[in-house]
Amino acid sequence: MAPSGGRSVFIGPRLRRLRRDLGLTQADMAADLEISAPYVALLERNQRPMTADMLLRLARTYTIDLADLAGDGGADSTARLQSILKEPMFSDIDIPSLEISDLAVSYPGMAEAFLRLYTAYREEQLALAERRGPATVGGASDEGGGYDANDPVAEVRRFLAARRNNFAALDDAAERLAQATSGTSGFIERLKTRHKLQVRYMPPDVMLGSVRRLDLHRRQLLLEDSLDTASLNFQLAQQLAYLELANEIGAALEDSQFTSKSAELLARRALASYAAAAIVMPYAAFARAAETRRYDLEALARQFGVSFEQVAHRITTLQRPGSEKVPFFLIRVDPAGNISKLLDGAGFPFAKHGGACPLWSVHSVFRTPRQTVTQWLELPDGQRFFSIARTVTAGGGSFGAERVERAIAVGCAAEHAEKLVYTRDNLGPRADAPTPVGVACRVCHRPRCAARSALPIGRELLPDDFRTLSVPFGFSAE
């Protein structure tokens, strides 16, 4: 009998990855399972289906979760393929849903090859856009001179953007872990029983600049004792992610070629943080709550016991193929305008270099700490977005401890704004009176902007021999 209730299951690539992770040859695995090496090869090439008996034998022999082996029968690959094939470049090709499903189930290797190729294409498109984008940093040329091909932060941003900041396999693994344990006491018990680690809380002067440190020699996980509950749970969840989801994190990194070790380490850290958030805020439960509460970030933060920033970050990841929610972007800036976090799932044309538009409320909310400020934005080309901005604090926890104030803006395209609690009953700013903003001054051609800090590319400054304008840079509107 087939494992999935009568339908044959083909898990060749997953079986091959398991064998390689275990450091086994096909002959080694065949000996362990008491079958022939050619049969292992046929299973890995999907020329034979995986039987229920063989699944159980694999699970017993290598002490692994049966659900991890059986997979989803191609449902995830099917959903990812369907999502990608909605792109405009495929609009003139009629591909029935049944054909997509057949490809994912019957030819999983070909499906995975297509998905990897498309992801690589998206990364190259994003990199090309940055190379062609105008630079606004001092001393750089106007057209692409400021692009740094070896910028590890830019590489990781492209890596996340190409995947719409969603990693379904990590979400699934994190959800299983969340079902086994949750909350501070549950995380601590998991570390104790599964990993033989004792959790200890230490003062900052003992931690020497760390908030979390794993001491494998003494079998201890040391945490700074001034962490608030949200930060404490996140650090515990992140350590569990590093310990238990290393294979899933590694698999998510497999299909990307980073140009430096720093970029790879940053991406690994980003995925560990993603997994930690998915443990604390499991995808299914969080997505359901987000829709029920109409994306009320403060309410969601209280429901899941997390910080405003943590929930704002998690809201950008709800783009699982087949279960997509409102697509959001996120930007985090400091009072000087430096961008320290950038996640784009909503198609907002962020400046690749330099700061964003000063008319955007994300730069002014420092004057109203902890207050949520909403704003309608209109770009020069007519695109409209809805933005939610608020300050967040990092550090602190004791008198004299250093605190860092930053501002976060989360937003979506105008067509999704009606799904948000912030537009209910017209309590906020009017949709028909958006703030005219630009991506950056050097590429914004609005002639009457008093906040302008630079002349637009390609425009000549008007002489002021006979007239002084009310704007910093006067140029012809034609």
From TrEMBL:
Boundaries of every HTH cro/C1-type domain copy: 15-69
One Pfam family hit: ScfRs
Cytoplasm in keyword set: no
SUPFAM superfamilies reported in the protein's UniProt record: lambda repressor-like DNA-binding domains
Keywords, in A-Z order: DNA-binding, Transcription, Transcription regulation
Xref: InterPro entries: Cro/C1-type_HTH, HTH_RamB, IrrE_HExxH, Lambda_DNA-bd_dom_sf, ScfR_C, TransReg_Diox_bact_type
Family per record: Belongs to the short-chain fatty acyl-CoA assimilation regulator (ScfR) family.
Name this protein carries in UniProt: XRE family transcriptional regulator
Biological source species: Tardiphaga alba
Source species taxonomy: Bacteria, Pseudomonadati, Pseudomonadota, Alphaproteobacteria, Hyphomicrobiales
